[in-house]
Specification:
Elements: H1 3-8, H2 12-28, H3 39-50, E1 56-62, H4 68-84, E2 88-93, H5 96-113, E3 121-126, H6 130-137, H7 141-144, E4 172-177, H8 183-191, E5 199-203, H9 208-216, E6 222-225, H10 226-236, H11 242-273
Parallel strand pairs: 1-2, 1-4, 2-3, 4-5, 5-6
Helix pairs in contact: 2-11, 3-10, 4-5, 4-10, 10-11
């Protein structure tokens, strides 16, 4: 069998093995290949970065575990950014599943920053009846939170809560979402009635087109959409994390497929020229 014929008939098992290695390697060891920056994500990062020290910022996990690949790296970057900028970080969730997820996904950067609970950040946990919560929190956010954090300690015990009594006391909301309730409800219940001027959204890719329309209309002030948005945030934060790792895996997978397509075509035309195929 000639070289051209071998190029045409590479064992599919070899292709799968090479493809699996190419995809798996950057997932464990991100390389940080260049990514195309997304403007809405850059705006989100800059808006949060520019908030004055001491600004109360809500990070709300309005999401399920299905958004892990895209949303976890966003949470890691933006919580770290807020802690770096000395904001008052408030973690919460309008989805029951999201309460545990944002706690788990943010604990690494919180530990790295040496943030002090009750002074630098606080975790409210799950807020049931989200639509009622959004309505009631505009007038009395402490009461809407039942006056306690996620471990049932009174909010009055924490210095971070000084001066935070209603929605208008919050400088910005960063909502990470996979569905409803989510960023649209923060827009309707808080921003549309003038309670909070800055709503920032991190969304899974499937939600991004609609969210982009809201960003372009000025209804949300920043947007990170899908893996590309997450990688953009990591890039701006000088962090090579899981978003870059997953982007690298996609790039490597596509590259291997393209290489084998080229090899197969070279083999075919070479064998045809040599008269080995009709």
């Amino acid at each position: 069998m000639s070289v051209y014929s071998k190029m045409m008939t590479v064992d599919v098992r070899i292709i799968y093995i090479i493809l699996a290695i190419a995809i798996a390697f950057p997932l464990f060891f991100p390389i940080g290949l260049p990514v195309a920056s997304e403007k809405p994500a850059e705006v989100l990062y800059q808006v949060l970065h520019d908030l004055p020290a001491g600004s109360p910022v809500i990070f709300t996990a309005d999401l399920s575990a299905s958004g892990k690949t895209e949303l976890q790296p966003m949470i890691e970057v933006l919580v770290d950014l807020s802690l770096q900028q000395k904001h008052r970080v408030i973690l919460m969730a309008l989805w029951a599943e999201g309460a545990n997820l944002i706690t788990t996904w943010s604990e690494g950067v919180i530990a790295e920053r040496g943030a002090v609970y009750g002074e630098d950040y606080i975790n409210i946990g799950y807020c049931p009846s989200p639509y009622s919560w959004l309505e009631n929190s505009r007038i009395d956010i402490r009461n809407a939170w039942s006056g306690v954090d996620y471990i049932r300690t009174p909010l009055d015990n924490y210095r971070i809560m000084d001066g935070i009594n209603k929605a208008s006391d919050i400088a910005a909301v960063v909502t990470f979402g996979t569905g409803d309730p989510g960023y649209t409800h923060w827009m309707q219940y808080w921003r549309a009635v003038g309670e909070c001027d800055i709503i920032l959204a991190g969304q899974v890719a499937v939600n991004t087109p609609n969210a982009l329309a809201q960003f372009n209309a000025g209804n949300i002030q920043g947007l990170a959409g899908g893996l590309g948005g997450a990688a953009t945030l990591e890039k701006m934060h000088n962090r090579i994390g899981s978003a870059h790792g997953n982007s690298d895996a996609q790039s490597f997978g596509h590259m291997i497929i393209i290489i084998f397509i080229i090899v197969g075509n070279i083999g075919y035309f070479g064998a045809k020229k040599a008269g080995e195929v009709k």
